[in-house]
Protein 1
Amino acid sequence: MIKARVTGRIWSTKKLGEVPPGSILEVIPEGGSAPLLAFDPLGCGEGEGVIVATGSVAAAWFPGKAPPIDALIIGSIDETQ
């Protein structure tokens, strides 16, 4: 899992039918590495801290045939200690 911050929303009027309803957000992983595009089923907003699962774990979360998603927002960070 990766701790990241949402930096923007990606708008796409066309996408594969296998991609479920939801948003695609640009996130910057903690530590300043390259931005990722992550599927967001939670409705997170810009500036919000999030937890991202990547790889086959992200796609396996969806029931049935895995969609072509390799980064999934699985949590919104309320606070850190």
Protein 2
Amino acid sequence: MNLFDRIKLLCEEKDVSIARLELETGLANGSIRKWSNTIPSGDRLAKVADYFNVTTDYLLGRDIPATVAAHRTDGYGDDLPPEAQEELKNYIDYLKVKYKKKDNK
């Protein structure tokens, strides 16, 4: 899954279009769709990350490995710092959206 696919899933989760995201973050119309083949500048990527309240690493697919989220149980990660707990929660939410979408196909 590439950067554009992750952003698309986040948009679906928040019920916002790509065009609306571009408008609200001050990005040029059609610029995010190009990110399926290119990586944007750091400041543009940060605007999208801030909009969704996720990290740029999350958008780039560099966050928590799937094996960590797949083995999660209640209380898992309680010993992590708050920012890591938030990243874990975001990744789990992402997986829920991703696999919910596959189940509906």
